[in-house]
């Protein structure tokens, strides 16, 4: 039972944040949600994000990382086994996980502060659009835009490697699912950064700093070993779960059937503590990250001044 205490704590945190957010949203909204206003903000945000060169560049980067051009060339020249690309594309996709936050963080980090700095936010909220409706439209628009890039980049790489081998697509589809979950966490964090920033340039810098910190921390193996030896496996697992990149990467290892060579010490700690339940519990941990970050983002935005 002790190994489930951490899970119960995560679920309790998610429930508290979710219920608080739903209650405040329901209390603060009108009798009818302005669906047209939400849709307008969502579509505008989506189109604006998709046209951003940063987003398009990362679509290409994800594709190139997954395909691995040198291996593709060697395979075409007949210097690699016929099944090499098919057997290794899932492992290559997992390598891209530390880079995924670089897609939503810069885009989301400037999304609210830019509107506030230009005065657009104050104008929009003076119309029949509440803060909750604006936040939903903005958050979902960024989420859909960045998710589209991930799906296109990873999907195109899978098509190049697998062609018509439909049965091979399962692992790639699962990786895309977990990548979009990590992307959602980063969108939530980016919105929080945007809300606390006073200037667009500051928000961009903070977004990149968040990525740098998470990218450095996501290599947890040595630290996890030390914590495990001094405080036990549950303390080490707690440390892993505090890093969304490592948690999402471990989820990919458990859920997409990656090879044993992809397992890190952090993922082995999860297996040790949660055993046969490691996949659903890790999945739930990432869901908690999504719920908490978006809930904090909404709660902060709700109590901020539009100017």
Structure, explained:
- By secondary structure, the chain is mainly alpha-helical.
- It has one domain.
- The chain contains 16 helices and no strands.
- 42% of the residues are buried.
- About 2% of the residues have low confidence.
What are the SSEs and their pairings?
Blueprint lengths: L4 H24 L6 H16 L2 H15 L1 H8 L7 H12 L8 H6 L1 H8 L1 H7 L4 H32 L6 H28 L3 H18 L3 H11 L1 H9 L2 H12 L9 H10 L3 H25 L5
Helix pairs in contact: 1-16, 2-9, 3-5, 3-9, 5-9, 7-10, 9-10, 9-16, 10-11, 10-14, 10-16, 12-13, 13-15, 14-16
Q: State the low-pLDDT regions, or none.
A: 73-77
- Give helix % range: over 70%
What is the total tally of β strands? 0
Oligomer: single chain
The proportion of residues in beta strands is: under 5%
Number of domains: 1
Series of secondary-structure elements, N-terminal to C-terminal: HHHHHHHHHHHHHHHH
Give the termini distance in whole angstroms. Answer: 50 Å
The average pLDDT value, as a whole number, equals: 78
What characteristics describe this protein?
mainly alpha; 307 residues; 79% helix; single chain
């Amino acid at each position: 039972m002790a190994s489930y205490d951490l899970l119960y704590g995560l679920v309790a945190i998610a429930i508290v944040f979710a219920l608080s957010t739903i209650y405040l949203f329901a209390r603060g909204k009108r009798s009818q949600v302005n669906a047209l206003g939400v849709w307008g903000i969502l579509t505008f945000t989506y189109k604006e994000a998709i046209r951003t060169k940063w987003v398009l560049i990362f679509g290409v980067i994800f594709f190139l990382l997954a395909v691995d051009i040198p291996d593709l060339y060697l395979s075409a020249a007949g210097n690699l086994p016929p099944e090499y690309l098919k057997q290794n594309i899932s492992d290559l996709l997992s390598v891209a996980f530390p880079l995924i936050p670089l897609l939503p963080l810069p885009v989301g980090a400037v999304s609210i502060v830019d509107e506030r700095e230009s005065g657009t936010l104050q104008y929009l909220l003076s119309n029949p659009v509440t803060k909750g409706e604006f936040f939903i439209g903005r958050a979902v628009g960024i989420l859909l835009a960045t998710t589209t890039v991930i799906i296109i980049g990873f999907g195109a790489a899978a098509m190049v490697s697998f062609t018509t081998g439909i049965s091979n697509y399962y692992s790639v589809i699962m990786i895309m699912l977990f990548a979009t979950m990590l992307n959602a966490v980063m969108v939530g964090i980016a919105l929080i950064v945007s809300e606390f920033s006073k200037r667009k340039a500051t928000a961009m810098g903070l977004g990149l700093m968040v990525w740098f910190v998470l990218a450095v921390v996501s290599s947890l193996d040595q630290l996890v070993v030390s914590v495990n030896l001094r405080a036990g496996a549950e303390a080490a697992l707690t440390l892993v779960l505090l890093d969304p990149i490592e948690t999402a990467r471990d989820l990919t290892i458990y859920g997409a059937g990656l090879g044993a060579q992809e397992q890190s010490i952090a993922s082995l700690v999860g297996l040790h503590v949660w055993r046969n339940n490691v996949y659903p519990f890790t999945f739930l941990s990432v869901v908690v990250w999504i719920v908490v970050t978006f809930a904090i983002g909404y709660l902060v935005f709700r109590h901020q001044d539009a100017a």
